[in-house]
Design a protein that fits this description.
Helices cover about 15% and strands about 25% of the residues. It has one helix and five strands; from the N terminus they run E-E-E-H-E-E. A hairpin with a 4-residue loop joins strand 1 and strand 2. The longest helix has 14 residues. The chain is globular. It starts with a strand and ends with a strand.
């Protein structure tokens, strides 16, 4: 997720995978720069678990910590093969400054 536009409440949302080598035709390459990241564990089925974690990050975590969100994409990482299962595991990565 990157380039949020508050005026019309839109953003770019990419589905991505790590890849080395050339970019296949019809795809775009995005380079994610090195950064300090806050990584939040998300447990439970999508989409509710993800939505609730996002809410807690911005209503509780950021207000109680000295960090600010840095420029760059935030990442939702879905390593679990079944993100809708009751015990699903995923992560939210936010670059920090």
């Amino acid at each position: 997720m990157d380039d949020y536009d508050a005026a019309d409440n839109t953003m770019n949302y990419w589905v991505a995978a790590e890849r080395e080598g050339t970019t296949p035709e019809g795809f775009e390459r995005v380079t994610v720069s090195a950064a300090k990241w806050a990584v939040f564990e998300v447990r439970g089925p999508m989409p509710d678990a993800m939505v609730e974690t996002w809410k807690r990050i911005f209503s509780k975590w950021f207000p109680s910590n000295p960090y600010e969100q840095a420029e760059g994409p935030t990442l939702e990482v879905y390593p679990d093969p079944d993100p809708f299962g009751p015990d699903a595991y995923s992560e939210i990565w936010i670059p920090l400054k």
